[in-house]
Amino acid sequence: MSVLLETSLGDIVIDLEVDACPITCRNFLKLCKIYYYNLNAFFNVSKDFLAQTGDPTATGTGGQCVNAIINPKAPRYFVPELVPNLKHVQRGTVSMAVAPGIDGKFTGGSASQFFITLGNNIEYLDGKHAVFGHVVEGFDTLDKLNEVYTDSEGRPIKDVRIRHVVILDDPFTDPEGLVVPNEEPNKIPDDPNLVRIAEDEELFDDLPEEEAERQRRKAAAAASALTLEMVGDLPFANVRPPENVLFVCKLNSVTRDEDLELIFSRFGKIMSCQVIRDKKTGDSLQYAFIEFDKRDDAEQAYFKMQNVLIDDRRIWVDFSQSVARLNTHWSNDVRINRTHRKRDTFAGREDLVATRRYRASERDNEAGAYDLVFDERELEREHKDHMRSRSISPRRRSPSPSRDRYRDRDRNRDRDRDRNRRDA
């Protein structure tokens, strides 16, 4: 008399000792018939010891015998059949768990929980739990079950469940009142919050080295982005650079904004084109950012303008990796509306407008265009410091009569000295 357990790790075929343990085998077979064990979890797995299941609550405290299911007033447990010559000698021995009695001894009875031994010669269990069957097929499944990762309480980290039970042979008649459900259950009976990793998910993905390295770098980048968000360098961790902005470098120092804009405008509408300059000197740093209206225009310019000769320099074009434009709190860009000849604020920062961190370019002075160069108030302070170092007040003083008189005296004295030298 056999039963097939279809588990998430493989199939297990159990031969039952129906002659030596008729009460236990009858209870087990009838529970299988009403799908009582379907979707039950192996909630207690100990390496080289045992794997326990048969509790719908997956806590080790639930379960009831078939008589209690038919008649709720019937006892939850039945008297276990402890046969002396059925011992836990071989791996794959199937035993009905015996709940401890009030006195602490294993005299409480059996209900639905059972276990399969994963090691040989476990004499400790003899006389304490009721052996009623042996595994005859599926030892490779037991090997997999023996190697699962478990938590501190013995529950597998990745769920291991009985998916389906097939009764190969049942010699017992059904008890009166036994009702077989029309369909098998499709919902796990225990608490879903206890599930760590679902049985259809992979605990460790066996990925190629390149893919594994890519995922490690992605995780490291995500962690770094989160750190930068926490310290305030990024507006939010999952920010991405704009896809319509190009970074152009290796420029000639004489290349101007309007030159680049004219060259790149053939690919589409340009929202802004800025050669980055030194704040104090105004010299070009030989790189620029070009913002297109559309992403497709930026892509076309990227492919067409790579290594193109501009002002005797072969430029390098790439997509911008900067996210400064997405965070207007730190942006110092000057936004210019060339259509209406109107200068807007510096990305909404009125403090930059107040300090006038710009100067009118000679070419576009009438148009109202500005280049981001330096702070006029800072120049004024530097001028005052320079004048103070020469002990000259920055303000022009009115002429002093006494000072003019002494100056005329010195001039007349020098003239008389020169005349005397010529006469001599």
Strand order of the largest sheet: 3-4-6-5-7-2-1-8
Largest sheet: 8 strands, antiparallel
Shape: elongated
Task: Please tell me the overall pLDDT.
Answer: 79
The CATH architecture assignment of the largest domain turns out to be Beta Barrel
Helix content: 25-40%
Along the chain, the helix and strand elements come as EEHEEHEEEHEHEHEEHEEEEEHEEHH
CATH class of the largest domain: Mainly Beta
What CATH calls the topology of the largest domain is Cyclophilin
Task: Count every helix, treating DSSP H or I runs of 4 or more residues as helices.
Answer: 9
SS-derived structural category: alpha+beta
Unreliable stretches (pLDDT < 50, length at least 5) are 328-375, 392-397
CA radius of gyration = 44 Å
Topology summary:
Elements: E1 2-7, E2 10-16, H1 22-33, E3 44-46, E4 50-53, H2 66-70, E5 93-96, E6 114-117, E7 130-137, H3 139-146, E8 162-167, H4 209-231, E9 245-249, H5 257-264, E10 270-277, E11 284-292, H6 295-304, E12 309-310, E13 313-314, E14 316-319, E15 336-337, E16 342-343, H7 350-355, E17 359-360, E18 370-371, H8 376-389, H9 401-423
Antiparallel strand pairs: 1-2, 1-8, 2-7, 3-4, 4-6, 5-6, 5-7, 9-11, 9-14, 10-11, 12-13, 15-16, 17-18
Keywords: Isomerase, Nucleus, RNA-binding, Rotamase
EC number: 5.2.1.8
Domain PPIase cyclophilin-type: 6-167
